[in-house]
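Issue 218. Parser rejects a valid record. Input:
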Amino acid sequence: MLESIRVAKRVGFDPVKVNAVAMRGFTEADIVPLGRLARELDVEVRFIEFMPLDAENRWERERVLFAQEIYDRLTREIMPLVPLDGHDPKTPAQEFQFQDGRGRIGLIASVSQPFCESCNRFRLTADGKLRNCLFAHDETDIKAILRGGGTDEDVADAVRKTIAAKWEGHQINTARFIQPERPMYLIGG
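Output the parser choked on:
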């Protein structure tokens, strides 16, 4: 993996982002080494709070390693993190750089600080289904429209309707939350 990152940088990919899911009791020891990796390779390491998208449906809130804890640990054990200028509220990551300007950190706080109200994302899965939220229970079968002879306007209409049906929020922090059946590895991302 490290050589792939170096090659990506050498051929001009910038920024290079490395995603890491943060789980209490499992990845705490990796936080600081990944922060150092961000500095060493001059890449952005993005820590993603563990979300209820696991195949075994074993997600528990107690296993979420919160973004604030990661921020605090990196600041304490490496050096202070400074927010990057020009943050786009529609992006999922809060982006920082270390105080000396070397190495970037992204924190995706989907559980502790949901950003649903500003989210403008949707996904097209590898099997042709459109999802208006990672946690959606309904999908629109775009592949079926295309293979059934649908026109560009049919596809555009399906996309518009799917996006218009986007939820107000994923509800992870409420008793109303229902974990979706499709795990992340089948959604893509």
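Fixed in the parser; the record now loads. The chain has a mean pLDDT of 89.
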